[in-house]
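Minutes, project check-in
Item: structure for the 277-residue chain
Input as provided by the requester:
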Amino acid sequence: MGARLTVSVVVYRTPSAILDATLDSLARAVGTARQQGKVAVVHLAVVNNADDTGACQDLWSLLARPAYRVFHQIMLYGGQGNVGYGKGHNRILVHSPGDYHLVLNPDVLLAPTALAEALGFMEAHPGAGLLAPRVDGQDGQRQYLCKRYPSVLGLLLRAFAPVRLRRRFTALLHHYEMRDLLDTDGIIWDVPIVSGCFMLFRVSVVRQLGGFSSRFFLYFEDFDLSLRTARISRSVYLPTVCIVHLGGQAARKGWRHIGWFGHSMVRFFNRHGWRWC
């Protein structure tokens, strides 16, 4: 029969070419999942966090493309201003009508089989409440986005330190990035932290959690939600679900992002416990 899936994408002045590539890959993955009987109904919700009438019009034009008729319903939300990543997703997440909800970055490319693999696994494993994929960069290099509980030193090194300095702490960073497990390309249960670029939730789980915390404007909202998920369900890394992530580090995005990173980091450790190194 197939599952019911809702996908939410939050955009803030995202270049149309990147968003188009993301939605194109999503549409192809939906088509494959439908052919394999893994999905029956797919709703797409795009949340525009930029107060820009022109941007909304451009989004409507993009979403009207024939390729996106694969979605049963397309919803475009706007007018709330830049409320942050988590709050943007919460507009749909806490009222998601399906069996599963995919939180998706606007700079992620899904492999054609990604949704079929993910939904098939979730249907076969009712104990899984949150699923994370294998992530590669556009350069083909692995991105280690599943993580163990962080330390302040590890976070700062990974986000801001030059390559030469990071090399002196290779063992620490590799442990944090779970390379000892991720490099085996096996299924990993009970992953502590899952990246917000792709989080496939069982709706019953994420509703119980109330979605993302309003304490985080940008950065660490996925860390917080991952840890809260572990209290009531299980998170799993499934390497046969493959995506390409085009995003970068906070340090590459300017001082405003560095400020948001630092502010959210303090809030995260205040809530879940400080670990310095």
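Outcome recorded: The beta strands are 3-11, 39-48, 73-77, 100-104, 108-110, 128-137, 142-143, 188-189, 198-202, 234-245.
No further action items on this chain.
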